[in-house]
Amino acid sequence: MLTLGSARFSSPLAARLSDDVRQRFLRYVRIDTQAQEDSTTYPSTAKQLDLSRLLVSELGEIGLEDIELTEHGYVFATLPGTLGAPVIGLIAHVDTTPDSPGADVAPIVHEDYAGGVITLPGDPSQVIDPAKELALAARVGHDIVTSDGTTLLGADDKAGVAEIMAAVAHLVGTPEPRATVRVAFTVDEEVGRGTDYFDLEKFGAEAAYTLDGSGLGELEIETFSAYQVRVTFRGRGAHPGSAKGNLVNAVKLAAEFIASLPPDSLSPETTEDREGFIHPSRIGGGVEETTVALIVRDHDDARLDEHTALVRRLAEAIGEREPRARVTVEVQETYRNMRAEIDKHPRVIAAAEEAIRRAGVEPVRSLIRGGTDGARLSAMGLPTPNIFTGGQNYHSTREWASVQDMAAAAATVVELVRVWAEGETRTTG
Ligand SMILES: [Zn+2]
Questions:
Q1: Long-range contacts, stretch 304-308, CB < 8 angstroms, 24+ apart
Q2: Catalytic option among 156, 163, 189, 218
Q3: Structure confidence by residue, pLDDT tens digits, 102-140
Q4: Residue from 58, 95, 143, 220 carrying the catalytic annotation
């Protein structure tokens, strides 16, 4: 029976780390760390720091050094390496998405999953169906963690946090050669501000990895490039009783603009893989003034600029049809595809692939239809690919994570820190 049980783990190390990963994960997801759009504070919500403070105290118990909660809410800590080894960063974010309820998460562990539909008891309309989710179908015998269906789970990114914590807790007591590790737990990743105050010099790593991916074995070295675009329509208000020939309704202008976007292409709901999109994500305002916020994304920077030019043309066309209105288009860069930066550092990718293999998993290169903290950090000069965490269905109440996959990710982190030390021995010896 013991052999059967441990066979579910990708490696003996993963089996050994699994209890610690599971316990940490279940502890962290119960803490509400939901970020908030349009907040004027940093971090966007103070409650994110509840987890940051817990991590500071747990890192102290583990025995890491230089543990710090910065004034902006980042947790930094150091695990000293053996002589001559380089400094490698491990990064995860404590916040969860505002897209789905994030308070009072009640995690459920479906032990030794037998297959079949998982119905979430807090809201039985929420089901996770292996017929639709091949990753779940392939995880019979795993311990599957879900929420009760009324909230997100928070595997994005508390799985990553738990995996890094379990890995450094293991490494601290082992004699094998290892790189020096700098740990960072960031805030506000989900509202696109995860690295706004990230001090690269203070972090002091020569390469880093975010633990913020998804399916088993995935290594992501490519993201979207992204713009945030705000289109504002200013109309002319008038009392509706005496508005004839006078009123210019900004609500209707915004509606016309949205209706003019391509209906069958260039949207998240009609594209996949490397295809980009224009996505009106929020709208707000009234008769006098209405603003449409859009996210525009593509893996290719030239195509990204084409999509943005299309938004501008469509907005301006509304202004030409109604000259009494004023239309403004503001474009702001959110992040750039990190591929170009990471390609300059082949060792960063090779080390991750080797570590994933040593954890007993076949590495899969994939691309992110979104961004990560790593995209920003790579642009700032710190190559930072993204490693899988084992979480699935992010940003939804049907989010789930396999304990066995999380253990494989934690084992990958341990192996990675050792691979970097070996590389150093070869280059210096
Ligand atoms: Zn994330």
A1: 304/225, 304/226, 304/227, 304/276, 307/266, 307/276, 307/277, 307/278, 308/227, 308/229
A2: 189
A3: 999 999 999 999 999 999 999 999 999 999 999 999 999
A4: 95
